[in-house]
Specification:
single chain, 523 residues, alpha+beta, Heat Shock Protein 90, 3-stranded antiparallel beta sheet
């Protein structure tokens, strides 16, 4: 049986969530509990209190996964107990903070507005002033906190996008450094393989020539044979260790100033029979093409020395328009190849990749009449930088830590960060402008209803004479405003001058037995 570790991150996270939910419940339940705990009491006080607290508990539980449901429960609870109004801003803020999309919240607010208007104006018969008050409560207790929560959510997403952007840049920098390190290591290893392998092959060729010299005694002949075998074995070990680490990202480094003619001359000095034909037009070649041609001739001469000792070799460099052809052909070895492990072909594969990066093609294989031929066609003009760059960068589809591909490219992370910043700015603008806009909309809806038939202008008010019969008063509005309770007087009527947006009572006309006994301006 597995024992749950009380110190595990998951357990600590669940305990923290539970404590936060309990604290939330205590905050929203305090106004309701305090009101019910205050006298007077009835026999329904306790059941009602339990029911209200259960509703709040359900709202707290739902606020994690369905925050809009929690908001609806708080609004419905306010129909029974006005103290639920204190819970509406809390659950509204959580709805904005925890909801991923905007559409459901807008639909909920529209339904609450429509349902509340129908309930108050239609079923309960509340006046326009009551409707305006309830709509204002919905605006500032529900919509505005939701906008603030939405803004805080966008801020959190912006912070997350910023962290992802920094992580992506860090991974890119690490990956670039790792790729540079690997390319440099492969370049050095490839140069060691090519240069050292070439030199070792020439040493083996000299040892083989010394071994078959007629004027050498048997003891020195045996030593020459051991030297040849040792050099051959060392060449193969070098081939096995670093032959697969070929450079794939650019031109190989070669001895300063060394040309193809220098390579051929070095092979001749080692005892190889090499004939070279080079057109004058190939003297000046682009850097990539020149390096590739040098690499082709060196690899071909090395292979000829290793696998076809004593065979004549022909090197040709010709130019036809914007193309350069490099051909290295060797005949079959007269006495058969030297004993050595079979070739793995990795050198030709690396050579083919080098030629491809230079923008050319390579063809190599055995000839029907015997021997081996290497033929490459290279561009005589410099390739566009974007072509070389795309070829060099192709295949870099994984990070240096061995994952199958980039988690997020810096350009994607930067675009995500830009979108997050734009959403934050938009949310802040909406949070500041929307309440004002909604308030204006409510005012423009409420004002015509409240002022229709209740406006008494100043000139008409001044013309009214105290003592005149009500029926003789000219310009008296057709309906009255609701009587303000704090200043209500029996037999008095209240009118407004049309002040925006609340259309508060401005004039008070008091009548006795149908005659005007007083007229007042209400401050």
């Amino acid at each position: 049986m597995r024992i749950l570790d009380s110190a595990s991150p998951g357990w600590l996270y669940r305990r923290r969530r539970l404590l936060l939910d309990v604290l939330l419940w205590a905050v929203v339940a305090a106004p309701v509990g305090y009101a019910e705990a205050s006298p007077p009491y009835s026999r329904y006080t306790l059941p009602l209190l339990v029911g209200k607290l259960l509703v709040l508990s359900a709202a707290v539980v739902a606020s994690r996964r369905q925050p809009l449901v929690a908001l609806v429960l708080a609004v419905l609870g306010s129909l029974v107990d006005g103290n639920f109004v204190f819970a509406i801003p809390v659950f509204s803020y959580l709805a904005g903070r925890r909801s991923a999309s905007v559409g459901p919240a807008i639909m909920v607010f529209v339904l609450i507005t429509a349902g509340g208007s129908a309930l108050n104006l239609g079923l309960l018969g509340a006046g326009a002033a009551t409707w305006f008050l309830l709509a204002s409560v919905l605006l500032f207790a529900a919509v505005f906190p939701w906008l603030v929560g939405r803004y805080r959510r966008q801020q959190q997403e912006l912070a997350d996008a910023g962290r992802r952007h920094v992580d992506a840049l860090t991974r890119e920098q690490r990956g670039a450094a790792e790729r540079i390190r690997l390319r440099e290591r492969a370049r050095i290893a490839g140069e060691m393989h090519d240069s050292l392998g070439h030199d070792l092959s020439l040493i083996a060729l000299r040892a083989a020539a010394l071994e078959v010299a007629a004027d050498l005694d048997d003891r020195h002949r045996a030593a020459a044979g051991e030297l040849r075998a040792s050099v051959s074995a060392a060449t193969e070990r070098l081939h096995e260790i670093i032959g697969v680490l070929r450079d794939e990202g650019g031109a190989s480094v070669r001895p300063s100033g060394e040309t193809v003619a220098d390579l051929v001359e070095g092979a001749r000095e080692a005892g190889m029979a090499v004939r070279m034909e080079a057109a004058p037009a190939v003297a000046e070649l682009p850097a990539m093409t020149g390096h590739a041609a040098h690499r082709i001739v060196r690899e071909a001469l090395t292979n000829a020395a290793r696998y076809a000792p004593g065979a004549p070799v022909e090197v040709r460099l010709t130019r036809d328009g914007d193309r350069v052809e490099v051909t290295v052909v060797n005949d079959a070895p007269p006495a058969g190849p030297l004993p050595a492990p079979p070739s793995q072909g990795s050198g030709l594969l690396a050579l083919a990749e080098r030629v491809r990066l230079a923008g050319g093609t390579l063809d190599a294989g055995h000839r029907a009449e015997g021997g081996f031929a290497v033929r490459a066609v290279l561009p005589a003009t410099a390739a566009p930088p974007e072509v070389v760059g795309s070829a060099a960068e192709g295949g870099l589809t994984s990070w240096s830590d061995g994952r199958p591909g980039p988690v997020e490219r810096p350009v994607d992370a930067e675009r995500r960060l830009h979108d997050a910043r734009r959403r934050v700015r938009r949310s802040l603008l909406v949070a500041l402008v929307a309440p004002v806009g909604f308030a204006l909309v409510l005012s423009f809806v409420y004002y015509p209803v409240a002022t229709a038939g209740t406006v008494l202008d100043r000139a008409t008010f001044d013309q009214m004479r105290v003592g005149a019969a009500r029926s003789e008063l000219v310009g008296l509005p057709r309906r009255q405003l609701e009587r303000p309770t704090p200043v209500d007087r029996a037999g008095c009527e209240y009118y407004t001058d049309g002040n925006f947006p609340l259309a508060e009572p401005t004039w008070r006309l008091c009548f006795t037995d149908g005659r005007l006994i007083s007229k007042e301006w209400i401050a």
